[in-house]
Amino acid sequence: MRKPETITMTMRELDRLKVIQAVVDHGLPVWRAAEKLGLSRRQVERLVLRYREDGPSGPGSRKLGRSSNNRLSGEREAAALGLIREHFADFGPTLAAEKLRKAHGLTLAKETVRRLMMAAGLWVPRKQRPPKVYQPRNRRACRYVGREAGVAGVLLPLQSLVRSHR
User: For the region Disordered, what residue ranges are annotated (predicted)?
Assistant: First the structure.
């Protein structure tokens, strides 16, 4: 007896699979499935065909588990990180990306440089930095009463407002 294959799916893909199964098993019309899924009839027919050929894993993403086509090569990543450590360790990611492009001819997006610097521990996002501790200042003694006590917005000395009881 063969061990059943495990398939990883998101909830959205699982809902899509249920609708495709309903088309194949229960005769749900393709146009109705297309309405439910928000796809065209032709796309639903393609998904049904893939389901019939590959089973439950057919309608899922075939790209799952593979690396991106736009991924940065390990050599280029190591070269960039070496240059950043050597020359731009105290720079922020945006300025480091700019300097890499101008000084070394290595063009990387600032978000790529940000990711590399965060992974290497060279830069910490502002929200993750510990808060700065400021020394509290003592309040100054009040010489004047605020504008509410003054007449027509003129600040008056405190003595002129106090009546003496002699």
Answer: 52-72
Determine, yes or no, domain membership for 41.
yes
- The values of phi and psi at residue 144, to 5°, are -125, 150
Which residues of the chain fall short of a pLDDT of 70? Answer: 1-3, 143-166
User: Partners of 144 in the beta sheet?
Assistant: 157
Considering only the C-alpha atoms of the chain, give the largest distance between any 2 of them, rounded to a whole number of Å. Answer: 109
Please give the Cα distance from 93 to 33 (Å, whole number).
47
Residue 143 pLDDT: 67
Q: Are residues 78 and 120 in the same domain?
A: yes
Q: Are 126 and 94 in contact (CB under 8 A)?
A: no
Provide the 3-class DSSP secondary structure of residue 63. Answer: coil
Is the CB of residue 114 less than 8 Å from the CB of residue 126? no
Which domain covers residue 85, as residue numbers? Answer: 74-124
Reported as a single tens digit per residue, the pLDDT across 105-132 is 999 999 999 999 999 999 999 999 999 9
